[in-house]
């Protein structure tokens, strides 16, 4: 994974402890971390699921696994919000040319805008769609499954599509009514989606215990990623287990929230209630939670979605896209975290 000048300069940016932090230690900055950035996994819900797939294809040379909840095929919107709404969410007007969408991925790869598509052959892929989800319908998620089957060994793909769950991130006991698609889109479903996903993506994980050792820290996304973060919130988050803070070599997982699930909309619900932190805590895994923001005009993104239709840049779906470059910068900055900056976030 290459460090650009932008990423290198992020070493001097502010990395602060969140007022929502878990644990008792009153640290002000992200500890210096040692991360294995050649074995990264990513996941996301809804628009975050679309972004997880885009990020996976952009960097499949070092992103080894992807989990997508309620997402559709790569490049479904084809850079057009009208197409996004007509074919890629809660309805499918006309046939979606999934072969054409996959051909665009191949074209981007030939141009160096995606990693070599052959990397996907050995990737681990976990897909989820709830039978009560009417925000992103089954037909849309099925097409992502068909795409990955054309790229990846089928034994490496797990598609969970038989549970009566709405448009939520399902958990064992956190969140709201499981069969209702309502904020914060975390569902109390008696089903540990985070664990099911991570144990498929990463081998030899230890089931979590009842106590978290780590803390949730704030990242200054603007300082780290510069102009590439212009459509993101000023702050993102990272969960750091105690073992990682104390110098253990750790894995990294990136989790992309869904629409209306960014921190300004749901507080710490997504960054603390999905179950990802519990699994990360006992398995030497840092979890990065980049954050978007809503925008009512130029660009139009009133629900704070990740860009899967082109509002941030024409290259939104490949490694030249602003948001993908910004998240790469955030991840890389963690591996060279500086203790020089001691500004503590006070919160609202």
UniProtKB/TrEMBL annotation:
Cross-referenced SUPFAM superfamilies: alpha/beta-Hydrolases (SSF53474)
Domain of life: Bacteria
Matches recorded under Gene3D superfamilies: alpha/beta hydrolase (3.40.50.1820)
Residues of the signal peptide: 1-23
Protein keywords: Signal
Listed InterPro entries: AB_hydrolase_fold (IPR029058)
Claim: RNA-binding is one of the keywords in the record: no
Name the UniProt record assigns to this protein: Polyhydroxybutyrate depolymerase
Natural source organism: Alteromonas profundi
């Amino acid at each position: 994974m290459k460090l650009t000048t932008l990423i290198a300069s992020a070493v001097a940016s502010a990395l602060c402890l969140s007022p929502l932090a878990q644990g008792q230690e009153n640290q002000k900055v992200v500890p210096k971390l040692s991360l294995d950035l050649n074995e990264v996994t990513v996941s996301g819900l809804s628009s975050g699921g679309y972004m997880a797939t885009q990020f996976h294809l952009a960097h499949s040379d070092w992103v080894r696994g992807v989990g997508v909840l309620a997402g559709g095929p790569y490049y479904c919107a084809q850079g057009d919000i009208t197409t996004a709404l007509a074919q890629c969410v809660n309805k499918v007007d006309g046939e979606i040319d999934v072969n054409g969408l996959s051909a665009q991925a191949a074209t981007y790869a030939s141009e160096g805008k995606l990693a070599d598509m052959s990397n996907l052959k050995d990737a681990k892929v976990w897909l989820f769609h709830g039978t009560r989800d009417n925000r992103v319908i089954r037909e849309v998620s099925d097409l992502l499954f068909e795409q990955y089957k054309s790229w990846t060994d089928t034994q490496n793909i797990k598609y969970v599509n038989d549970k009566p769950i709405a448009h939520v991130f399902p958990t064992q006991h956190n969140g709201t009514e499981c069969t209702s698609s309502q904020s914060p889109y975390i569902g109390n479903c008696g089903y540990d989606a985070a664990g099911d996903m991570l144990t498929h993506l990463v081998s030899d994980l230890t089931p979590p215990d009842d106590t978290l050792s780590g803390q949730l820290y704030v990242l200054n996304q603007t300082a780290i990623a510069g102009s590439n973060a212009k459509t993101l919130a000023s702050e993102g988050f990272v969960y750091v287990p105690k073992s990682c803070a104390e110098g253990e070599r750790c894995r990294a997982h990136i989790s992309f929230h869904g629409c209306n699930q960014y921190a300004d909309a749901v507080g710490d619900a997504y960054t603390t209630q999905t179950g990802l932190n519990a699994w990360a805590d006992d398995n030497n895994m840092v979890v990065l939670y980049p954050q978007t923001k809503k925008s009512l005009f130029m660009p139009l993104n009133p629900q704070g979605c990740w860009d899967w239709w082109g509002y941030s840049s024409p290259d939104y779906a490949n490694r030249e896209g602003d948001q993908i470059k910004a998240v790469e910068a955030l991840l890389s900055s963690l591996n060279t975290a500086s203790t020089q900056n001691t500004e503590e976030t006070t919160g609202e």
